[in-house]
Every structure is written in structure tokens, then in C-alpha cells.
Design brief:
CATH topology: Dihydrofolate Reductase, subunit A
Order of helices and strands: EHEHHHEEHEHEEE
Largest sheet: 8 strands, mixed
Helix content: 25-40%
Strand order of the largest sheet: 4-3-2-5-1-6-8-7
CATH superfamily: Dihydrofolate Reductase, subunit A
Number of strands: 8
Strand content: 25-35%
Radius of gyration: 17 Å
Number of helices: 6
CATH class: Alpha Beta
CATH architecture: 3-Layer(aba) Sandwich
Shape: globular
Number of domains: 1
């Protein structure tokens, strides 16, 4: 399977609390819900179709619990095409603390995470998708496990919150595979990791 990630970010790179004010209030974050209602119908269709082509899903614990309590539990959300895709596909969670996952067809990955994910990637099939899960996404990139990443950039600066890429971290070159902007200014960019960047010499 190909490991792909999809992340909604602000112009200043924040990914925390995109869905709602109560989603994620870590570290005093008060500006949640910045992505709700953003994007046009084509973007919403793109997001839905992305979920529908997944062979399986991989989550960090926090995102898994958020999704399990919404897409996995609320009847109206379960009936949505995204909910159907999530509930029908196998789900994997990278966690050292989760012991009793409440969402059906969930496997908790413990121990050697890189080996477990490499084993999943070696299976035939379509995409092993990661949605949100910022800590996990950064770790996957650092360990060269991401084949393709999609960023949906919402035209807003929130000025606080956890960013997808921290101030200090590993560097990464990316090849742009696809880029478009919708009628509401949301940009969709698909990248493939391309090793280390090259820097100009003095």
C-alpha cells in the first residue's frame, strides 16, 4: 500500500483545532473551527473521494479518539460517505497507551512502529491514509515512510496553536505533484518527499 497523508493547515501552518472550538484545546488554544465551512463543493468532493479510495487508515491516538467519537459513533456522520469509508476499512492506531479501542476493526500498533508500518505498506492494495495526526505525520516523514502528502491550506492566519512543522525539525525536499485553488481560496497541494533539500553555498 502507498502511505498518504492529508492535513488541513492555516497560512501560518497551524493544524490544531481545525474542526471545532472543542476539538483540541491543548496549551490554551482558543481559535478552533478555522476550517469549518471553508472550501467549495469541489474541495469537499475531493476530500470525500480521498477517503473513499483508502484501503486502510492509520491514526495517532488523539485523532483516532476524536474520529471514533464522531465518524464512528454519531449515526448521521456514520451515514456520510466519509463515515462509511472509515467504518468499512481497517483502522490502525499508533499508541503506547490505548488498550481497548472502541471502534470496530481497529488494531493498535505497539512495539517497533516503523517495522509495523513497513509491513502494512508491503501489503498489496491502494492507500494507507493518515488524516490529521500531526505528531504521527511528522514522525512518518522523519522516518521516510510517507509516499505522498496532501496539504489543504485554508486562507486564514490564527496566530497560535500546534503547527504541522515545528520551528526546529528535520529538513525535507518535496516534489509538487498537483496544485489547485478553489473558488473560496483553499489551496490543495499534493507533494512527494524528495530527500534532503539542497542549500546554496556562500
Amino acid at each position: 500500500m502507498k502511505l498518504t497523508t492529508m492535513t488541513q493547515v492555516t497560512i501560518d501552518g497551524v493544524m490544531q483545532g481545525n474542526g471545532g472550538a472543542s476539538d483540541d484545546r491543548r496549551n490554551g488554544f482558543e481559535r478552533g473551527g478555522w476550517a469549518r465551512g471553508k472550501g467549495d463543493d469541489e474541495t469537499r468532493t475531493f476530500i470525500t473521494q480521498t477517503y473513499q479510495r483508502a484501503e486502510a487508515f492509520l491514526f495517532g491516538r488523539r485523532t483516532y479518539e476524536l474520529f471514533a467519537g464522531s465518524w464512528g459513533s454519531i449515526d448521521q456522520m456514520r451515514a456520510h460517505p466519509i463515515g462509511v469509508a472509515l467504518n468499512e476499512a481497517p483502522k490502525y492506531v499508533a499508541s503506547t497507551t490505548l488498550t481497548a479501542p472502541r471502534w470496530e476493526d481497529t488494531t493498535v500498533l505497539r512495539g517497533d512502529l516503523a517495522a509495523a508500518i513497513s509491513e502494512l505498506k508491503a501489503k498489496p492494495g491502494g492507500e494507507l491514509q493518515v488524516h490529521g495526526s500531526g505528531i504521527l505525520t511528522r514522525w512518518l516523514l522523519e522516518n521516510d515512510l510517507v509516499d505522498e502528502m496532501t496539504l489543504l491550506t485554508v486562507p486564514v492566519v490564527v496566530g497560535q496553536g500546534a503547527r504541522l512543522f515545528p520551528d526546529a525539525g528535520p529538513d525535507l525536499a518535496l516534489d509538487l505533484v498537483e496544485s489547485r485553488v478553489d473558488s473560496k481560496g483553499v489551496t490543495i497541494q499534493v507533494y512527494r518527499p524528495a530527500g534532503r533539500p539542497r542549500y546554496a553555498r556562500a
